[in-house]
Amino acid sequence: MSTDTVRAGAAGEAAERRREQHGWYFYDWACSVYSTSVLTVFLGPYLTAVAKHAADADGFVHPLGIPVRAGSFFAYAVSASVIVSIFVMPLAGAAADRSGRKKPLLAVAAYLGAAATTGMFFLDGDRYLLGGLLLIVANASLAVSMVLYNSYLPQIAPPEERDAVSSRGWAFGYAAGSLVLIANLVLFTAHDSFGVSESTAVRICLASAGVWWGAFTLVPLKRLRDRRAPAASAGQPSAHGWRQLAATVRD
């Protein structure tokens, strides 16, 4: 094999790696808007207000028949989403590692989360249970998708590039989160000028994060590629995931 052929092959591999890296950055660009606008700024106060609207005379709501202070409902929903994530993430990670099919799993997690977030537009009146359910689904989906997203890094960047590639991914996420949050705050603070109520403005802000998440997820799904799993990894990924989780709990 000639030197020119080797160089051409190396250049082609480098170009393909950069293409995947650029696609990888865009998942942080897609999903960070949820963390910034929805989870950090808008959903907590709004879902609390919805829960208080549905509360009884003593200030309690009763999800699944359990009395919960309306002002604490958002915090309980977040806690429930963390518990769900703890059980689902190892299963998704094991399934991706053992099947080699990370991209379909990433697509399912991302679009489930994006759909749940977009569905928050319908969170009005006293629909606190809908809000809690959508929050749990969106948070757990984000957690699973980030496990799959991060698992691509060793495949698309050699050790000497990983810090730089990871930092660019974070930068893309912060840039998107800041950009959309500014737009959302403009809509929220000047909602009268846009001819919408404050409640409607918040629901538009929530739903816009889901639309953004789903739209820009198309970029990594187009550019990232799956690798064939080693033959030794074949088997039952769900059982392997539960064994990994049990080992983690023991440790």
Overview of the structural elements:
The structure is a single chain. The radius of gyration is 21 Å and the shape is globular. It has a two-stranded antiparallel sheet. The protein has 9 helices and 2 strands; from the N terminus they run H-E-E-H-H-H-H-H-H-H-H. It starts with a helix and ends with a helix. A hairpin with a 6-residue loop joins strand 1 (60-61) and strand 2. Helix 1 runs antiparallel to helix 7 (198-216) and helix 3 (102-118) runs antiparallel to helix 4 (128-151). The chain has one domain: Growth Hormone, Chain: A, CATH 1.20.1250.20. By secondary structure, it is mainly alpha-helical. The longest helix has 52 residues, at 3-54.
Q: What is the element layout, followed by pairings?
A:
Layout: H1 3-54, E1 60-61, E2 68-69, H2 73-99, H3 102-118, H4 128-151, H5 153-156, H6 159-189, H7 198-216, H8 218-223, H9 237-250
Antiparallel strand pairs: 1-2
Q: Would you kindly provide a brief summary of this structure?
A:
The chain has 251 residues and is mostly helical. α1 (3-54) packs antiparallel against α4 (128-151) and α1 (3-54) runs antiparallel to α7 (198-216).
